[in-house]
Amino acid sequence: MSRNPTARGARAAGTALAAAALLAGCSSHSAASGPPAPTTSAPDVPGRADVQAGGSDLTITKAVAHLDPAGTGTLTMTVHNGAAVPEHLDMVATPDAGRGALSGAAKGDNGAMTDGGILLPAGSTVTFGGTGPSIRLTAVHGITAAHTLPLFLQFGVARLVHVSAIVSSG
């Protein structure tokens, strides 16, 4: 191993240039090469979102955030996966960088927690809340004047989906 500071500096510079070239090559894909962006119909209907894109077909209905005065509570909703492939809900984001805590259903595959998130089998309808999977919200901020809570739901196939949950006390 060389103890020459000039040689070490040259190797470090060469390694940095190679890494930069590799990263530039990896990130230089066009938007057309990636999966199509999901399309959400009826985005202005509180509690509902319809998503069709890239093999996904989701219908989200009855999205309600049941919150106490401190902004803590649960999100209930029904998600129908009309696609021929399973889907997973792996994240719920709330305003101000908040996150919902996901828990899987107690029994069965429909709504179970997996490594990919809450399982939504192909052709199934999963009800969040009650005996199904649940989403716990803590100290949520960002409720609109129309008493809705803007949410982003991250799915494995459908990707990022926006839905405005209706806010209910308690």
From TrEMBL:
It comes from Actinacidiphila guanduensis. Residues 28-43 have a biased composition (Low complexity). SUPFAM superfamilies: DR1885-like metal-binding protein (SSF110087). This is Copper(I)-binding protein. Keywords: Signal. The keyword Signal applies. PROSITE patterns: PROKAR_LIPOPROTEIN. InterPro entries: PCuAC_sf. It comes from the Bacteria. Residues 28-53 are annotated as: Disordered. Residues 1-31 form the signal peptide.
